[in-house]
Amino acid sequence: MTSLVICLFLVLIFSSSSSSQDSKLVVFAGIPSSLDGWKTSEISWNTCLSQCWYDEDCRVVFQSTSSCYVFKRGNVTIQASTDSVNRVAVKIPNPPNDCLSEPSDLFTQPFTETTNGSQIIRSEFSYSNGQYRVVYTVSICPSNTTLYTRVVGTKTYQVCVGFRLFPGGSGTYSDAQKLCNSSGGYGLTGPLDGTEYDIFKNQSIALRKQNGLNENAFIWIDGIRYAYGEFDFEDESHNGVPANLMHPGDPNDPPPSALYMYGASNRYLIADYETKASWFVSWPIIGALCRVNDVLQD
């Protein structure tokens, strides 16, 4: 059982019983930069602290005269104060075991982006030049997209990816870029690795069947070259195209050319084709693989 620990600066430090969280309430004199969107109630400070502790969504509470203001999600800057009438309590997850000498010593968590499997959680608890910064947001992927965790080098990305179809039935690479940038889109993307590729392949097969489309139809993915050599990619969250996923002999089209996924005729492998094309002989290029921006939850 994890104990409730309140680090109360300028007054005293104490602990009491139980909570389901590994967190600390850090209490200090401070004034939030804005109270827009905060919920307020006329309750005592101790009740305010207790309610915040047991509310999993509560991140910050602020006392001004007899009012308790509650901050749950978003980002806020708190200016340190010498006036103990204005009190702030910040609930920090996974802090050091001990209450340290200054509240700023506990604000050492840089910006992070993690997932619980269905939601994207972004958080930051930092301090600089008399200002405390608290960020806590929860997002989900929009409908018709799937959440993927991608690691590229030292950076981890939580991304929403899904297929989009051209309204007119076929389109060029430029059309694909516009398609993936519209309606909350981030841009074109491609498979991070073979595991993702297998998922996208199966999804593309289902997509064609569900929409009554030719099983050999192509789908644009991220990757364009304007001269012979390397492709340029607009989405930094994938590794380009692993060589073992390329169709034998590709890439082989004269620049400018862009990458696409074959249909059933060539085992759904990846190849390149001229960017201005919207058909390949009798097979249409029906859509694109898109990275889509996640949606904040209230």
TrEMBL record:
Pfam families: PAN_3. Residues 3-136 form the PAN-3 domain. Residues 1-20 form the signal peptide. Keywords: Signal. The keyword Oxidoreductase does not apply. It comes from the Eukaryota. Coiled coil: none annotated. InterPro entries: CTDL_fold, PAN-3_domain. The keyword Membrane does not apply. PANTHER family: C-TYPE LECTIN-RELATED, CW DOMAIN-CONTAINING PROTEIN-RELATED. This is PAN-3 domain-containing protein. It comes from Caenorhabditis nigoni.
